[in-house]
């Protein structure tokens, strides 16, 4: 009996080893292969998303395919939701949580064109409509929940500036960090006054913490695999000093190359005033111009 059990286990193991893995499957745009396509779409969109937060696949809403194209081609309508992981965060996407309704969810409805290239699913194009949840609906469900502010809100940016100064002053890191971009600003009124809750990404510079305050403008962000990035959350209640917490990620853990943002992305695709970073189209519209760089506070 013991020999039969061992034999059955060996047969099962050999059968499992003979099954095609994800890398062995030839993608042919078939409906039963849509999961392969949606996973590739999720990965590709995040790899090309250079601002804000990572997005996670939620559902497939539609599909259309031409029967006689070579290579085959399919257009999938999918829904993605913004996670709490900023793009500088090296955490794998499957470990990133999507936002709760009380945090103002952000949803992207995308049409993704996928074809087969050498038997692999390959994204050819995508366009997404990215929207935060309705503030009016949120207020009816949670009147006391913080509401999103525009990313260039002057008071919100001032709270970010003060929080970053506080981080650098109390940091054990030798390098000085400067603002990369503001991810979110929300506000709430309390008995002590207006409160600001901010999230922002920071980047390491070539200045030390000691020399930066005297010569901040000359501090240049480190590039490529030399740079460490970080993500901060700050809270400022009324006239009190802000509280700030930052995570710093080692350079080798950055999931994809970062580019210092020179202006707001999407060349006009962002709604004005913008409260979120939308997923930009893969093919930018060259004739459209976006608003100026307003996501960094200015001044000393």
The amount of helix comes to 10-25%
Strand line-up in the sheet with most strands: 5-6-7-8-9
Topology as a string of helices (H) and strands (E): HHEEEEHEHEEEE
Count of β-strands: 9
CATH fold label of the largest domain: Nuclear Transport Factor 2, Chain: A
- Based on secondary structure, the structural category is alpha+beta
Shape descriptor: globular
Q: What is the CA-atom radius of gyration, in angstroms?
A: 23 Å
Strand content: 25-35%
Overall domain count: 2
Q: Runs with pLDDT <50, length 5+? A: 1-22, 259-264, 284-300
CATH class of the largest domain: Alpha Beta
CATH architecture name of the largest domain: Roll
Straight-line N-to-C gap: 81 Å
Calculate the mean pLDDT score and round it: 82
- Separate helix tally: 4
Short description:
This protein is α+β, with helices and mostly antiparallel strands and 300 residues long. The chain contains 4 helices and 9 strands, in the order ααββββαβαββββ. It folds into 2 domains: 24-136, Nuclear Transport Factor 2, Chain: A (Roll), CATH 3.10.450.10; 146-300, Nuclear Transport Factor 2, Chain: A, CATH 3.10.450.10.
């Amino acid at each position: 009996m013991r020999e039969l059990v061992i034999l059955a286990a060996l047969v099962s193991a050999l059968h499992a080893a003979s099954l095609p893995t994800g890398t062995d499957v030839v993608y042919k745009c078939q409906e039963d292969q849509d999961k392969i396509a949606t996973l590739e779409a999720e990965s590709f969109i995040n790899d090309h998303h250079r601002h804000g937060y990572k997005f996670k696949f939620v559902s497939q809403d539609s599909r259309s395919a031409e029967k006689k194209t070579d290579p085959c081609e399919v257009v999938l309508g999918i829904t993605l939701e913004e996670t709490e992981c900023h793009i500088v965060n090296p955490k794998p996407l499957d470990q990133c949580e999507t936002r709760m309704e009380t945090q103002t969810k952000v949803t992207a409805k995308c049409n993704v064109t996928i074809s087969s290239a050498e038997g692999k699913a390959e994204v050819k194009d995508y366009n997404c409509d990215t929207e935060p949840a309705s503030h009016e609906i949120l207020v009816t469900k949670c009147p006391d929940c913080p509401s999103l502010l525009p990313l260039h809100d002057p008071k919100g940016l001032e709270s970010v500036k003060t929080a970053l100064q506080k981080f650098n002053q109390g940091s054990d890191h030798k390098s000085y960090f400067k603002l990369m971009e503001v991810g979110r600003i929300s506000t709430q009124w309390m008995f002590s006054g207006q409160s600001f809750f901010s999230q922002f990404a920071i980047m390491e510079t070539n200045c030390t913490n000691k020399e930066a305050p005297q010569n901040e403008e000359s501090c240049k962000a480190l590039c490529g695999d030399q740079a460490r990035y970080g993500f901060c959350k700050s809270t400022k209640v009324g006239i009190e000093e802000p509280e700030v917490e930052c995570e710093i990620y080692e350079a080798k853990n950055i999931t994809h190359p970062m580019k210092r943002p020179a202006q707001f992305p999407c060349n006009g695709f962002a709604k004005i005033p913008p409260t979120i970073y939308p997923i930009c189209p893969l093919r930018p519209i060259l004739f459209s111009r976006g608003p100026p760089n307003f996501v960094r506070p200015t001044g000393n």
